[in-house]
Design goal:
Layout: H1 11-24, E1 27-30, E2 47-51, H2 54-65, H3 75-83, H4 90-99, H5 123-138, E3 141-145, E4 157-161, H6 177-189, E5 193-198, E6 206-215, E7 224-232
Parallel strand pairs: 1-2, 1-4, 2-3, 4-5
Antiparallel strand pairs: 5-7, 6-7
Helix pairs in contact: 2-4, 2-5
Length: 233
């Protein structure tokens, strides 16, 4: 799924770093599953994805269970769903709100543009095809609505966190970063292995992988250079 902060392009590298721990854990967990773009690629028989956004979880569940989606969403459709969310299923709101918005930011503006041949792009159809690629990987996992700070894990669990990055575009469901760091520490104290994707973390989190990236979360800010990093606690 096209989604703000998607790890799709880095999933292979990140998973390869975590693989030695994934191989011996009895449970793999993502408290910020987002678009499921890394979750769907993790090969484990006991994996759980959580997110505080009920619409993204509903969308991922519908993909996992049904695998069929719209081929076209007009700007009028987009506006109607945005303004009448209660008239639609959470899964449909999730599809339109994330997959048909600029950069996949939830109702952050109707996505429009042309392909390399100057032909208007059909973002709904593109998203449908991308979601279909995730069906197999999502079918192996459990998906639930939950805030990370309501969850607790212990020995034998690998936790991969991909929270909203500190200092970047604000999300509707923001977090207190000091509280998040302490939550990670508590999980480690209980015996879990904790990985976090971020640009920077406190000194007690060890950087185990990094790669330079260009990122832009809005149409107006342009591209910004950062180093995508994976930290382990």
């Amino acid at each position: 799924m096209n989604y703000v902060g998607s790890k799709n392009r880095h999933a292979k590298d990140i998973i390869s770093v975590m693989q030695k721990d994934i191989d011996i854990c009895h449970k793999y967990v993502e408290p910020f599953v987002g678009g499921g773009n890394l979750f769907d690629k993790v090969n484990h028989d006991n994996k759980y994805g959580y997110d505080i956004n009920k619409y993204v979880i509903a969308l991922l569940k519908s993909v996992r269970d049904y695998g069929d989606w719209f081929r076209d969403v007009t700007e009028e459709d987009y506006k109607h769903v945005r303004e009448n969310k209660d008239s639609y299923s959470d899964a449909i709101v999730g599809f339109v709100g994330f997959c048909c918005s600029y950069s996949g930011k939830f109702f952050g503006g109707f996505a429009r543009g042309n392909d390399s041949k100057g032909i208007p792009r059909n973002y709904a159809l593109e998203s449908k095809r991308n979601l279909e690629k995730q069906i197999s990987g999502l079918s192996k996992g459990e998906l639930q609505v939950a805030s990370y700070d309501t969850l607790s894990f212990g020995k034998g669990v690998v936790i991969y966190c991909d929270p909203p990055y500190k200092g970047t575009t604000k999300y509707k469901d923001g977090i207190n970063y000091d509280e998040f760091y302490n939550w990670c520490r508590k999980q480690r104290e209980r015996g879990a292995v904790v990985y976090v994707s971020e640009y920077n973390m406190p000194d007690d989190f060890d950087c185990v992988w990094g790669k330079g990236v260009n990122s832009s979360l809005t149409k107006n800010t342009g591209s910004k250079k950062n180093t995508e990093r994976l930290f382990k606690l």
